[in-house]
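Title: Comparing notes on inverse folding

I've been comparing how different people in this forum approach sequence design from structure. To keep things fair, I'm posting one structure and asking everyone to reply with a full sequence. Here's the target:
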């Protein structure tokens, strides 16, 4: 079964986002075990900027030490690696930077063809009112917090373009997650799996996003702050079981 197919059928749940710069191979095995034991099934690896890690080396070592499928969440073509189980092929639909709408995709395509792994066409929508690293790196503006109709139109455009997944992101470390209103606006018209992330710190915030129609909530910073503890993940997974 492909990862996309599994995601289409999976119940709502958290998704761990690993920044490989911030998780050493000494720490990874225990961190992965805690996540898996709490109920985690997949992890995203990547982010808009990381610079100290050799991504292929990191992912290859990680896959040797834990049975956790890794899905690349690339910030640039420099992050491409064959040592993952699938890759989000991000179409930065909220922006108007041609590099992130087609340029990077053309650069990546020959590599993806040779690799032959699972590529998941993803409409990637940045939202919120504070400037995050992802905006600086991509040189794009997010959709402002009071414009659910723009988020909805952007997600619809991605769906009509044939993409398979929607990812609404407030950016790593955002002061607050994307609003439930945004999620509801997309969920009411687009039948694709919906990933939501950026600034989620508390299980209650994740519960609210699930209530509005999110399928996955991405947790990056908060997991780092909790030192990747099992109790942290158990709290997040427990809200999915009520
Ligand atoms: C960022 O959605 C992710 O792209 C996760 O954000 O690090 O704030 O959890 P956080």
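Reply #1:
Here's my take.
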């Amino acid at each position: 079964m492909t990862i996309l197919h599994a995601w289409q059928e999976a119940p709502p749940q958290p998704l761990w986002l690993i920044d490989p710069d911030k998780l050493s191979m000494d720490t990874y095995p225990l961190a992965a075990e805690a996540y898996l034991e709490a109920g985690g099934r997949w992890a995203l690896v990547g982010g808009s900027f990381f610079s100290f890690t050799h991504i292929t080396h990191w992912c290859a070592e990680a896959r040797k030490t834990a049975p956790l499928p890794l899905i690349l969440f690339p910030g640039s073509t420099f992050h491409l690696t064959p040592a993952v189980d699938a890759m989000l092929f991000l179409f930065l639909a909220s922006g108007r930077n041609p590099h992130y709408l087609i340029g990077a995709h053309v650069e990546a395509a020959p590599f993806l063809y040779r690799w032959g792994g699972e590529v998941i066409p993803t409409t990637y929508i940045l939202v919120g009112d504070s400037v995050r690293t992802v905006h600086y790196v991509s040189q794009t503006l997010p959709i402002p917090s009071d414009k659910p109709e723009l988020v909805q139109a952007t997600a619809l455009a991605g769906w009509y373009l044939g993409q398979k997944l929607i990812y609404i992101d407030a950016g790593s470390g955002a002061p607050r997650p994307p609003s439930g209103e945004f999620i509801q606006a997309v969920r009411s018209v687009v039948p694709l799996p919906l990933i939501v992330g950026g600034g989620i710190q508390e299980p209650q915030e994740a519960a609210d996003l699930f209530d509005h129609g999110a399928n996955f909530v991405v947790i990056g910073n908060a997991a780092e702050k909790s030192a990747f503890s099992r109790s942290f993940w158990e709290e997040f997974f427990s809200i999915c079981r009520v």
